[in-house]
Amino acid sequence: MLARRVLNRPRSLASPSSWAASARTVTACDVIVVGGGHAGTEAAAAATRVGAETLLVTQKIQTIGALSCNPSLGGVGKGQLVREVDALDGLMGRAGDWAGVHFSILNRSKGPAVWGPRAQLDRPRYRQFIQAELLSMPRLTVVEGSVEELLVSEPDPEKPGKHRVTGVRMADTGRIILARSVVLTTGTFLSGSLFMGQTTSPGGRMGDPPSGSGLSRSLKEVLGLRLGRLRTGTPPRIFKRSVDLSLAQLQLPDQRPTPFSFISNGTHCKPEEQLPCYLINTTPGVERVVRESLHLNSHIQQDTRGPRYCPSIESRVLRFPGRQHQVWLEPEGLTSDLLYPQGLSMTMPPDLQVRLLREIPALRKAEIQAPGYGVQYDFVCPTQLFPSLEVRSAQGLFLAGQINGTTGYEEAAAQGVWAGVSAGRRALSLPPLSLSRTQSYIGVLIDDLVGRGITEPYRMFTSRAEFRTSLRPDNADLRLTLKGYCDIGCVSPRRYEEAVRMKAGLSEALSALQDITLSPTRWREKLPQAAVSANKSGIMSAEEVLQYKDVSFEMLASAFPDVLGPYVEFAERLKIEAMYRPHCEKQRREIERILQEESLSLPQDVDYLSLPVSLSQEVRELLDRVRPATLGAASRLPGMTPAAILHLLNYITRTPQRDRSAERSSTPDPQNLSDESRDSFPCVPVSQ
Amino acid sequence: TAASARTQFSGARASHRLWSSAPLCATDTIFALSSGQGKCGVAVVRVSGPASALALRGLTGPDRPPAPRTAALRSIFHPQSKEILDRGLVFWFPGPHSFTGEDSAEFHVHGGPAVVSGVLDALGSLPGLRPAEAGEFTRRAFHAGKLGLTEVEGLGDLIHAETEAQRRQALRQMAGDLAQLYRDWSQRLTQCLAHVEAFIDFGEDDLIEDGVLDQVDNSVAQLQTEITCHLHDGRKGERLRSGVQVVIAGETNAGKSSLLNLLCRRPAAIVSPIAGTTRDVVETCLDIGGFPVLLSDTAGLRETADAVEQEGVRRAREKVEQADLTLVVVDATQLPTDPLQVPVFLGAHLLAVLPHGVGLEESLRHCILVLNKSDLLPVEQVEKTQTFLNKNPGLPPASLLSCHTSHGLENFMTSLQSRLSSLCGDPLAGTPSLTQARHRAHLHECFQALGQYQQYRDVDLALAAEGVRLALTGLGRITGKVGAEEILDIIFRDFCIGK
Lengths: 688, 499
Known about the structure:
The structure holds 2 protein chains of 2 kinds. Chain A is of the alpha+beta class. In chain A, helix 4 runs parallel beside helix 12 (409-427). By secondary structure, chain B is α/β, with parallel strands linked by helices. At the A-B interface, helix 14, helix 20, helix 23, helix 25 and strand 25 of A face helix 1, helix 2, helix 6, helix 7 and helix 16 of B. Chain B: Its main location: mitochondrion.
């Protein structure tokens, strides 16, 4: 089915001419998404799934869904995000299954909660899949061009915010497009500059024209947003034929590829057709070249914050000198003659890049197709956003991806889905929603961004999720798909039905397991492999026995074929559920407490400095600066006191909302009481 | 349908749900001393939560449970050692007809510190019971909808006071060897967690070898041993003296030591006209109006090149930070003659003496100004200034007095006693046994969580890491929280993350 979609390019494939022809006329849609990267494509797709007429504006239709850096998807922490984007019916997981050429589960030995599904991708296939999906999507139009400025008008006085964004003006034609929501996903293109050696040029990605400076001006000067600056980089691309792979260590994929998507039947690439990766190590010569070229490397000399993970080879050898550093040579695709040296991003002049590479034995004769380079770019300090990813001060403007200071395809896609959902819902006058950090990595990501802000490019790690043993890659569908259909409205019936079937199957199987109870002696007879201890007393359920390290569901199913046989298709998930259930039960209490606090929204335009509540000046200033969306978010702020939380709780529960609305605008609130709560809160948590 | 489904999640209704719902986190059972100290012959220890009945049975035996809401005289003994702790009244309040809405019990025992800490220890030894956090009883009552609007008004301030009292108590407890020990454990545990997390999040990277986990195994085992030893060590660290901690502070030669001597009616401290006479902290136990007070005189605060005096000044500042009440002594002869200038002058003075860490507002609430040497001022200036100070609400209570002639002492004692009576009414201020019970509970939590690491080390590293994380949370309740970013900082400091 996938193949048919790619081949039958549908009607809406880029007819930018019809848009260009009507230059200077005014058109309108529900949602405009600016940018065709991972955030933009997911945002556009999510907005249309929610039901909004959506327009995706991108510089080149050809580069929609391009993997501009590494040819891989997923990993530890990131893989969870891919699974969650998929559970909300996003594109990324299915695209990965279609384009993957090397699948492996990282951390296989460390426990299913921290497994990291990962794949090397074929770049053209990934792009093709995303483009085919988008271009055939109902309610979605794709147009080429760049946006010169945001149209800004007076805010809706009933809602928080100083401005309202009502659409965009295009750069070349001057054409005006009106929309109820605008999603910006401009990645590194916001005042981006490219660095190589001592040369600097404007741009966000090599080979693409820089975006107009108008957007940057709109954000900074018109909307008054605080911006920061970050840097990142990409390695040179090496011709495979110039590499002596016999000197590299072979890294094979999993023999049975695991798909990312909950609804993929398998991966497009056949298991035996997968490509390997190669592992090589740096030498002292590499360090020497880095040191000798420092004076020619202006990117490294700048003090803009770069990521501590995924660092350039320059920062790696400077921070940890005198060591070997690993470099992975990753395939760029099935037909590509290039290798991507993961771990060798660098910004020195191109001739020195070649010299550096050739210090490594396998790369002694390496030739490069394109040199590595660095990018510095503006990001919008994400504490200025609501958990819906709408800008607090600008109604109708949503931001997602690197513009919020994150790094990585998966982080971008995760925000894209949520910004798209939020923008679509706003356009359709549905109340905004937020995802809790107790329920998803997407919630952790957004809560960290809008609640704490960033000091370096933000990447997901499993250690960021307090409830990681509950937020596992295996159960993302149970956590998100059902809500995605019932509450959020971004999931197709087909996926929903599959999740419902899965949920029912798992719970039936678990009760079947709990119903099988035997004495330890009987278990030893029935299942000698389980090594049930002779000292054990009382009776044990099959669920308890399944928690044993060496017991699989299949073993139990062959011992009790009549009862457990029907559930063999859920075997792996049942094993994981049984392992984690006691711990998740314990966590549930803590999660419920947090969710209760998060269900208490704090009004967004309240004047904390003059609030008639007993709060210290420090706490007032803190609240005024951060403006937490919920009581839960407030209680996580460093510097909050239990007493201040209680005063706030008391204030929320006691003060009728009409009074609170009146406190933030002097004009009387004309809304009727039954309806007001919907608009006066920035976000309502997704139901439990 | 999504829209209509959403409306029921409007903030107002959600909050209403919470207001009227069952208490938060209802599964823990908490206990605390809920009577004040000093002047009380009877101490009340309160228990709330589902294990309250268990606590009652554990401490009074399985027979003859008291009738609900009726006093019963029982022997109270330690559930493990069976040692009789006291004979007192016990009450049983089955939920929801109790203060918190949960099952509750009360033990009314003799007010001596040995009995109280014995009962607290006994309760802490029962499974499912832990010492209450600041304001937890009242919070539970609040969530159960048991408090009226006016009571709720004062609740925030009460919790604030409790938190502050606990913080100061913790600071006192943490001064010295014990602090060093906890900090050391906390650092090692943070390092362990960082290394496990590094192995999980970056284990596929270079330079993080399996050896990292072996180190963690050793550290965890070592920590477990040390914590067990500590928990079984009968000495329980420094013996802390009970009483409201009152500290005399101010610039040199303001008459701080004279005030101490005046209050204890004996020359406990050396006084001289030479600035910098007191160089170390002089402590003395007093009974002021029936309240137990631990009074400390400190070195005068000034910039000095003298190393001994510098140390004295450092100790003085530390004392002020830990104090329940600070008496800031000012040389009245330095006061501006124009009363209108007085508040600015005193404000600057307070800024120099009081700690800023917790916020000046907070410090001001725990302070009395003493303007000494009034005998050296003209009588009319004394009267004018005192009248002016009495109606100046921006400043803490201030008394003009002369340590030399005792003039104005009565006035000062009145305001001191009124502060002491409110401080002693607070059950948390100055009860070391409660803090010790809390520490023991958290250390026990920490110990058990480390067991989870060992149990899952080879089965599931995510669950093992969870154990270290819980252990750190337990210890963090004593030493302060460790956040995700700090863990990441250690990871990036110790390892070269390349991928």
